[in-house]
Amino acid sequence: PLMAAFLAQKGMQLIDTIMMGYIGPSALAAGALSTPILMMFLMLCMGTLSATGVFIARAKGAENFHEINSSLQSGLHLAGLLSIPSMI
After folding, report:
1. Given a cut of 90, is residue 83 above it in pLDDT?
2. How many CB atoms lie within 10 A of CB 88?
3. Helix or strand holding residue 14 (H, E)
4. Residue 8: φ, ψ to 5°
5. Inter-residue contact 56 to 72 (CB < 8 Å)
6. CB–CB of 67/59 below 8 Å?
7. What does the pLDDT read at residue 70?
8. CA atoms in the 13 A half-sphere facing the CB of 85
9. Mean pLDDT, range 56-69, rounded to an integer
10. CA torsion sign, 7 to 9 to 48 to 64?
11. Measured CA distances, 5 to 1, 15, 26, 38, 64 (Å)
12. Residues 6+ apart with CB under 8 A from 73
């Protein structure tokens, strides 16, 4: 499954590059410059939100159900806040 997902992602990138190449060199350059910026925001958001799972697992191990709910709600709020600048 991981190899299939990797090949699908690379295939999509190939098709995107071909389609941008048909539009013109300026579209291809814009795509090449914007992809690293998108990946930077994606990794920043994913890394930040991955801490939510750690907090929930720690609270579950301590059987502190109030902290589980609190961590989950905080994670959802954080995801909402991070999604706004990511969409822009």
Report:
1. no
2. 6
3. helix 2-23
4. -65, -40
5. yes
6. yes
7. 92
8. 9
9. 91
10. negative
11. 6, 15, 29, 19, 37
12. none
CA 27 to chain centre: 24
Residue 4 above 90 pLDDT? yes
Tokens matching residue 70: 């609190």
Residue pLDDT, tens place only, 64-79: 889 999 999 999 999 9
Q: Which of 41, 78, 39, 40 shows the shortest CA–CA distance to 56?
A: 78
Task: Scan for tokens 């991955």, then name that residue.
Answer: 50
Is the pTM higher than 0.85? The answer reads no
Q: What's the whole-number mean pLDDT along residues 51-60?
A: 91
Which backbone phi and psi does 79 adopt, to 5 degrees?
A: -65, -40
Residue with tokens 């190899």: 3
